[in-house]
User: What shape does this take?
Amino acid sequence: MDRTMRGVLPALVVCAAFICISTANTRSLSSSLTPNVKYGCRSSTIASLQTNARKPSRRFREIKEKVEQRPYKAMEAIQLLKQLSNTKFTETLEVHANLNIDPRKATQNLRTTVVLPKGTGKTVRLAVLCKDEDAKEYMAAGADIAGQQDLIEDINKGNLDFERLITTPDMMPQIARLGRVLGPKGLMPSIKSGTVTTDVPATIKEIKAGRLELRADRKGVVHMPFGKMDFSEEDLLENFKAIQESIEANKPSDIKKQYWKSAYVTSTMGPGLQLDLSALNTKEYV
Assistant: This one.
């Protein structure tokens, strides 16, 4: 045997042994997987993770048994969510409306504001970017933070100690330079959202009372909170009606087909309950 073969043979033996071990391990793992998992995953690691997926909790299973697989009227759904709530904190109720719109079209980009008549149940920390001489007036109107230079410096540093930001049209050049900080946080004031205004005191009052921005996401779905679990059923229904009316009042003029595809209400830790669209269209809530 020549010297070349003597150097190659040990390497071939090692490779063959490695291949045998790998094949044996793959067969062992494959035999423990269900057919759907085995052939549905490219990676055996992902497949093994899927077999260890967390099972639904007992709480979830008990809630699911109490939910009927049918559309609910709005008040029915609110009452059921309140009955099923057993968390140690106050949950938020939300409505998710799937609309028959294409937000990529300028005429169908739904974006407006809605004032919840019974409030949001949440204290909103509000900042006003304005001239320093107007700051005292806006603080007296209910703003938590107001000013120009100090507020701009805080924003540039990333100190966003507020949840909503409003401003006046003459401050827009300063706001434009803060877009890289405010934009990703969803805090950028705009005329459509009503946060660029000439009547700052009235806007402060509305936002503190429960005014929210209503907008559809890229798939045409509106996600809106409409109160807390400790609200009365009647107050929750009033807030829900306000959201529905705002959505319908801002229906794009070029939508000739059915506007609502589907609608669900849910709570922070509760199930999603489908709403009866025919009842919504006829304003039958109870």
About this structure: Residues 166 and 195 are 5 Å apart (CA to CA). The radius of gyration is 28 Å. Residues 35-42 have pLDDT under 50 and may be disordered.
